[in-house]
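Tip: read the tokens left to right.
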């Protein structure tokens, strides 16, 4: 049964979508069957995969229709390795509609039951909020990865997120673990970034892993416009190698 990996931080602009698309391809390059799920109404991951959210929504082929309408998630999969379940702005309607569902935080977990045996890893790009969409991703998850830009605002929300994860562990998903914190958009020559990275390592020492940082590069932005992962479009980009290392750690995790 595949591991479900929510990539989560309630702060926006911390490279969640970048992490999902590059980590998905890194895992696929190592022979793993991978599914990426876009659970963010901004649909950045969908665009990163070279898909048009508006066209997909016209055909009712987005996550919203799997969560709240009569489509199974398997019907929504855009084939490939990694495969994709896309999103559109329609997903912004999901939170209020989920509130009327019994066990509103567990809908995605239930819907994923028919897919988990088909993939080794299912990565979920979470929205930049702690709403029901994020709670659904965590409730379905095994290993959470927390990308955090090396600045104060991105790091400040991590304790609240860890508190939320702890509550989900206690209230029904005892399998959920924090795989680690992934520093992103890191400027190695910037003293502030260095200080934040050291503060992260100190604050979470003995609690959770802090992985090697993903360096800032305009190539990650260029890749988005190309609809390709950076590790394919610009494989020499600093930081790309750390996505391969993270993939290896996930594969070897017991």
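Filled-in amino acids:
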């Amino acid at each position: 049964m595949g591991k479900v990996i929510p990539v989560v931080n309630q702060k926006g602009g911390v490279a969640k979508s970048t992490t999902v698309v590059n980590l998905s391809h890194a895992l696929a390059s190592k022979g793993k069957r991978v599914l990426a799920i876009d659970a963010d109404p901004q649909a950045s991951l969908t665009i990163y995969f070279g898909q048009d959210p508006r066209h997909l929504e016209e055909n009712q082929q987005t996550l919203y229709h799997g969560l709240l309408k009569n489509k199974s998630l398997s019907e929504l999969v855009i084939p490939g390795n990694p495969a994709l379940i896309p999103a559109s702005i329609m997903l912004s309607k999901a939170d209020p509609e989920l509130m009327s569902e019994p066990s509103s935080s567990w809908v995605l977990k239930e819907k994923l039951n028919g897919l988990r045996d088909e993939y080794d890893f299912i990565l979920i790009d979470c929205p930049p909020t702690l709403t029901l969409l994020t709670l659904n991703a965590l409730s379905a998850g095994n290993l959470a990865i927390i990308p955090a830009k090396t600045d104060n605002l991105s790091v400040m929300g991590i304790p609240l997120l860890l508190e939320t994860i702890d509550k989900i562990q206690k209230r029904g998903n005892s399998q959920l673990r924090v795989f680690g914190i992934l520093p992103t958009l890191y400027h190695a020559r910037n003293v502030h970034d260095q200080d934040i990275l050291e503060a992260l390592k100190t604050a979470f020492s003995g609690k959770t892993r802090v992985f090697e940082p993903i360096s800032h590069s305009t190539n990650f932005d260029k890749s988005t416009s190309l609809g390709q992962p950076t590790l394919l479009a610009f494989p020499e980009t600093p930081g790309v190698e750390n996505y391969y290392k993270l993939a290896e750690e996930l594969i070897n995790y017991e």
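Residues 3-252 form a domain with the Rossmann fold fold (CATH 3.40.50.300). The mean pLDDT is 93.
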